[in-house]
Write a structure and sequence with these properties.
This protein has 8 helices and 3 strands; from the N terminus they run ααβββαααααα. By secondary structure, the chain is mainly α.
Length: 194
């Protein structure tokens, strides 16, 4: 785990889009765990022993606690939901005078409210709270379920088939595998079997 000084030095790191190796290094840094596995052990009494990075003033080098206390200590490190972890300063601060010049404006402010296309709900300025599953599939797997691959026209769902026998029959008709592959047992199951 990096020290606070090293973390502070990495806080101002910037990478360009083509610097993939540096971007990977930054991602590894921000996803590093709170504790390394070498510092946490369980003693013979079933208690968690946490080795401190540096000894305290009184000479303490380890903290011993019950598993429940350890979980409470870890849970205290998780931020509350909807808590802003990023604070903006300078021109991006919430009440900055120049903020309107650098923050993107709503579409209706730029081209006029009369020219903005209305969404399905009739609201001209609001965006949906979530991205639709079709757009997520397109973003992740490059599968476009909104447009026809032949003519480019817009597609819409006309039926959702939920019955397993009907799904298997359709898949067999298309020459696809009708049954899912068997799942590989989890690692814990293999250890118990041995």
């Amino acid at each position: 785990m990096p020290t606070s000084r090293a973390t502070a030095q990495r806080a101002a790191v910037r990478c360009d889009a083509d610097e993939r190796q540096r971007l990977e290094q930054v991602c590894r840094t921000i996803t590093c765990p709170v504790l390394s596995n070498e510092r946490v052990q369980i003693n013979s009494a079933g208690q968690v022993v946490l080795k401190l990075k540096t000894a305290w003033r009184d000479g303490t080098t380890h903290i011993v606690m019950s598993p429940l206390e350890f979980m409470q200590w870890l849970a205290a490190l998780v931020p509350r939901p909807r808590l802003h972890l990023i604070r903006f300063h300078g021109v991006l601060a919430p009440n900055a005078k120049l903020r309107a010049l650098v923050v993107p404006q709503a579409l209706e402010d730029v081209i006029g409210a009369s020219e903005v296309p209305a969404t399905e709900s009739g609201c001209t300025h609001c965006r949906p709270a979530r991205i639709s599953w079709a757009r997520l599939l397109k973003r992740v797997f490059k599968i476009d379920l909104e447009h026809c691959p032949n003519c480019g026209g817009q597609l819409k769902i006309i039926a959702a088939i939920l019955e397993a026998p009907v799904i298997e029959r359709i898949l067999r008709h298309l020459g696809l595998q009708a049954r899912a592959l068997p799942r590989v047992p989890a690692r814990g199951d293999l250890q118990q079997a041995a």
